[in-house]
Amino acid sequence: MTRSQDVPTLVAKAREGDPRSVARLISLVENGDPALPEVAAAMAPYTGRAQVIGLTGAPGVGKSTTTNELVRVLREQGARVGVLAVDPSSPFSGGAILGDRVRMTEHTADSGVYIRSMSSRGQLGGLSAATPQAVRVLEGAGCDVILVETVGVGQAEVEIASLADTTLVLLAPGMGDAIQAVKAGVLEIADVFVINKADRPGADATYRDIQGMLALGERASGDWRPQVVRAVAAKGEGVDDVVAAISKHRDWLESSGNLRTRREQRAAAEVSALALGRLRARMGDLREGTALSSLAAQVAAGDLDPYAAADRLLAGLEVS
Amino acid sequence: MTRSQDVPTLVAKAREGDPRSVARLISLVENGDPALPEVAAAMAPYTGRAQVIGLTGAPGVGKSTTTNELVRVLREQGARVGVLAVDPSSPFSGGAILGDRVRMTEHTADSGVYIRSMSSRGQLGGLSAATPQAVRVLEGAGCDVILVETVGVGQAEVEIASLADTTLVLLAPGMGDAIQAVKAGVLEIADVFVINKADRPGADATYRDIQGMLALGERASGDWRPQVVRAVAAKGEGVDDVVAAISKHRDWLESSGNLRTRREQRAAAEVSALALGRLRARMGDLREGTALSSLAAQVAAGDLDPYAAADRLLAGLEVS
């Protein structure tokens, strides 16, 4: 917990670009600190200035390498860049593995880049709630572009990707067939597909599969047609094309009016997630008590059905 | 929606093993039918009879093939088997891709096997809530073993795996290094690791990596030490060893008293998920209204911070 008088100082320093203050504010977000509402209130006026780019894909497709290369190109263009490497992590250990951070040391000495791993602390919905707050801190600290990198393409990751202005989905040849990509729901969330490791066998087939599936999708005129870009991030190849595709999407978002719509939907998701988080916290208080474990024992023994148990649990919950 | 008078008939027929009634009951679960509490109440007395086995792993490791082979071996042992292929699916299309079902047609003519794909309908937490209900239906229908196959190793999948008595985590050589496996939190949830496609290069390295990480983990005496089994499911090789490892884990669960503990924890998670689902549904009602969209527009514009917005949203929510 942070003493309340620290927050205005931290926010002021973060506004001036002090990396340690940014880091501390994001730690508050990650830890669900009681001072968060105060941080959010202080950051609210700076909301909506940064471009938020989501980057997701299955383990092994090269997300960290691609992120690293995108940072390089964006820095060359003069943008201040924030990176949030969001890690579903272990539900038990409560800590992020340092993999991403370790791999991205190239940029850590650059004062125009903030890099931060965040873990979910095992709370389902925790990432959806915390990520936009962390984005807000980075916006307040003057980042022009914020890359949110998520591991995997599960449900939680789809939700996080939906928090971005532009979502990149990374694929790699031989990582599973096209049906698997559709199964995970990535076809609908991707604004830009990046076929990474495009120098490997099977890259052309992956490219054709994705193009084929995009051709099947129904799209109204004026809708965005997802771009498919080939890259070899480890060699820096194709990264300019990825950045160009992001810019193109950004132009479309602005000219079509979708930027505003997306951001309002994002805010709605954020507010809902926070509200649910508060309810969940109250439920957690109940969980500590004997009510839930007693109900659970009855359900496990077949003496009570879970719906009836849920009703009894809710009866003990006060919302406000 | 199902007419209330249908439920007792469906349950009675499902108890007799009628596959169409089982299928209809699971559809009720999947669709969140209002008759579900009635179904759950009718199934409660049969709770806890089946052995529930979770099976998870990244796309492409061979989950469907392995499930198929496990069904074959379990059927040879005389067990009635239920399979739930849980599919995170698309948050937009609301329907499961038929991949798993298509691949598992070998067993569909066998009356001792129920096979069912379930989709999450895009609701975060929806799977956690629906899966145990579907398990309950299969228990009621007389299944001795229920395999719950989940795609990916994201947060939601970890949660689903925690609903099983025994969790198998499938890995394949070359699908990403050991650090990636730890990042996804599988080390903690696995009771049995299956290194599938063990005839491929790199299988020995994967085996050593996993054994090495297990050796690092702290474990009290009497704790279960996860088994690591090599298999080539596509050729039926090693599947007997997987079944043997499952049996060994089951014996340990019973002799150590962990079976009861796990099942009570499972019931607690189930009851919590149902209670949260009800709260979320009420929040969804709010979302339809103007309250949330008006709050979201203010948050997107930076006129209001999301915490203050969440407070205002919750003020409009009645729990009971």
TrEMBL record, chains A, B:
GO terms for molecular function: GTP binding; GTPase activity. The keyword Cytoplasm does not apply. SMART domains: AAA (SM00382). Residues 49-193 form the AAA+ ATPase domain. It holds the Pfam family MeaB. It comes from the Bacteria. The keyword Chaperone applies. InterPro entries: AAA+_ATPase (IPR003593), GTPase/Isobutyryl-CoA_mutase (IPR052040), GTPase_ArgK (IPR005129), P-loop_NTPase (IPR027417). Keywords: Chaperone, GTP-binding, Hydrolase, Nucleotide-binding. Belongs to the SIMIBI class G3E GTPase family. ArgK/MeaB subfamily. This is Methylmalonyl Co-A mutase-associated GTPase MeaB.
